[in-house]
Amino acid sequence: MTRLDSEQVLNDNSTQDPLAIGTLKLNHKALSDVNDLSVFKNLEKLDLTFNKLTSLEGLKSCTNLKWLSVVQNKLESLKGIEGLSKLTVLNAGKNKLQSMDEIRPLVGLCALILNDNEISSICKLDQMKNLNTLVLSRNPIHSIGDSLFKVKSMKKLSFSNCKLQSIDSSLKSCIELKELRLAHNEIKMLPKDLAHNKKLLNLDLGNNIIIRWSDVKVLSSLGNLRNLNLQGNPIAESAKLDKKIRRLLPGLRVLNARPIDKYVKNEKDNGSEKDDDSSIKKLELQKEKKDGKPKRNAKMLSDQGSDGEVDYSHDDDMEKKSKLENKKRKMDKVTREEKEAPSLDNKRNHGTNDIAEDKKTSKQKRSKSNKEPSSPKIEKQKKKAKKEGEKQVDVVDDTEVPFEQLFGGDGVEDMDAGLRKVDEKAVEDMNLKANLVSFAANRKESKKPDRATRLQISPVVEIGMGGPSAWADE
């Protein structure tokens, strides 16, 4: 049996004044008794998770407590907290509680989390005018009853993995409700009164026994719904249901854990390859226009299909073949010129003076190219290459030309712009799939921050304090 030692707590917090302590974190201490907490009169936040507590009687004197977590203990009752009138957040999940009656006097509660206990019935919560979060997942609750009839402030309700067979009209008064989790129950239909919950954004009905559309027809009244899960129900096997739901709920973003945009894309295109090909062709066409390449002829425009895209497959093959032949001819010409040119060995025969002079001339050329990175000769060759639609082979082979001049210019900028567009599209797709903010790989030489890096993660707000909860099973 491990008792709390107030002297040790003071030493750990570098003070001898118990009134100076407002927050204590005492998790994983194997505590079975916390009676010594009575000296901490100004304590407002207390974390006692992962201990061996069987009673909360030692908290009676902590009347200033606002936040209390006793998750993962051995509690069978909440006796001792009745007088904590300032408490706004209570998390007593993963214990052995069989009743929640002790929380009735706590009218200031904003969040009550009692998941993974042995509670079979919900007490009336009429007096809790500020309660916005109630989590009772994994408790043997058969009915909600009238416990929530007057709780208009409720925003998040979780009854996942209970034994509910219906919700009847129990949520009629929860007009501020935004998130409702009813997965892994025995629900057969949704009541018409659910239409009163106009602000509902997330609804999880996974793994119930809903069979027909008429059993969930009330969904058409929930125009603000963004996330709907019907997986694990017999009704989810019908492909027609997906189309009907998307038609009746145009604002829906995620259906059965999959982004709606994916469904729309599959209907519009027969496959992803077609969409990818069209995107690549558009990028190539834009690059050709900027590089000054010849425009598509009238025959290409006549090949336009019903989907508004032009089939360039035949013309592209001819154009590529022509480019390859031109390049091969030029390479053959360069090879012949190199064979005819005097070799270095022939130069050596003229004497060491000639070699020294050649080295001096080469050094002067290199220094000149470094000082003048954009020589008239190079600019002229680049303009000529633009007009002809291709780079000059002799320029690429010239060892005196700096690397930046060879591969800089409009072509690279256009290509980088196209890649940025593709990166942005990929980030958006990943955001829809994962329903999370994701970041693209950083480019070292990018002057402007890409779209993903401009996104900022919102600060985490504790449950019950007004922040949106995660879309996961609690």
From TrEMBL:
Biased composition (Basic and acidic residues): 265-291, 311-325, 332-348
Entry-linked SUPFAM superfamilies: L domain-like
UniProt keywords, alphabetically: Leucine-rich repeat, Repeat
InterPro entries reported for this sequence: Leu-rich_rpt (IPR001611), Leu-rich_rpt_typical-subtyp (IPR003591), LRR_dom_sf (IPR032675), SDS22/Internalin_LRR (IPR050836)
Ranges for region Disordered: 265-397
Database matches in PROSITE patterns: LRR (PS51450)
Name of the featured protein: Leucine-rich repeat-containing protein 9
Gene that encodes the chain: LOC111471652
